[in-house]
């Protein structure tokens, strides 16, 4: 889930549990129904914001790690990415999941993405050594 302010900065959270790091609000569909319903519920649960408008921005399968048991396609997730508008500012944070929340500049997001890619590449090199 990505939400941008009027300067097109995405709202990102620092995660309090694995996988640690900085990311948009996210979560599993579980009992929420559709990916859109899950996105709305996760935004409310994690940062106390009520989604008023939402639009899909793509998605797809990624074979990334998950603490849950693997499914028919193995370990990974089917990602759905949304852009959202909300009716209120940040509400009560879900402190067992979120350390902090703030608007990030696009260049900061790019640096975080590069840092993640570099970390993954280093892990792959170390694993093959």
Question: In a nutshell, what does this entry contain?
Answer:
The protein is an alpha+beta fold and 129 residues long. Helices cover 28% and strands 28% of the residues.
Q: What are the key terms here?
A:
129 residues; alpha+beta; Nucleoside Triphosphate Pyrophosphohydrolase; three-stranded antiparallel beta sheet
Describe this structure in words.
A hairpin with a 5-residue loop joins strand 1 (11-15) and strand 2 (21-23). The chain has a single domain (11-104), classed as Alpha-Beta Complex (Nucleoside Triphosphate Pyrophosphohydrolase), CATH 3.90.79.10. The chain has 2 helices and 5 strands. By secondary structure, the chain is α+β, with helices and mostly antiparallel strands. The chain is globular.
**What is the CATH first-level class name?**
Alpha Beta
Q: How many extended strands?
A: 5
Order of helical and strand elements: EEHEEEH
Helical percentage: 25-40%
Q: Tell me about the biggest sheet?
A: 3 strands, antiparallel
CATH superfamily: Nucleoside Triphosphate Pyrophosphohydrolase
Q: Strand order, biggest sheet?
A: 2-1-5
| Count of domain modules | 1
For the record, give the distance between the C-alpha atoms at the N and C termini, rounded to a whole number.
37 Å
Under the CATH scheme, the architecture is Alpha-Beta Complex
Instruction: Please tally the helical runs, counting DSSP H or I stretches of 4 or more residues.
Output: 2
In terms of DSSP E residues, the strand content is 25-35%
Mean pLDDT: 83
Structural class: alpha+beta
Low-confidence stretches: none
What is the third-level CATH name, the topology? Nucleoside Triphosphate Pyrophosphohydrolase
Oligomeric state of the chains present here:
single chain
Rg (CA only): 15 Å
């Amino acid at each position: 889930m990505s939400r941008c302010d009027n300067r097109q900065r995405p709202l990102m959270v620092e995660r309090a549990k694995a996988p640690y790091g900085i990311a948009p609000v996210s979560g599993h569909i579980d009992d929420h129904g559709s990916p859109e319903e899950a996105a709305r519920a996760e935004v409310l649960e994690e940062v106390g914001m009520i989604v008023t408008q939402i639009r899909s921005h793509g998605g797809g399968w990624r074979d990334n790690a998950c603490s849950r048991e693997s499914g028919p396609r193995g370990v990974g997730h089917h990602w759905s990415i949304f852009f959202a508008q909300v009716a209120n500012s940040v509400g009560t944070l879900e402190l067992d999941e979120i350390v902090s929340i703030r608007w990030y500049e696009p260049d900061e997001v790019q640096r975080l993405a590069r840092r993640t890619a570099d970390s993954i590449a280093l892990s792959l090199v170390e694993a093959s050594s």
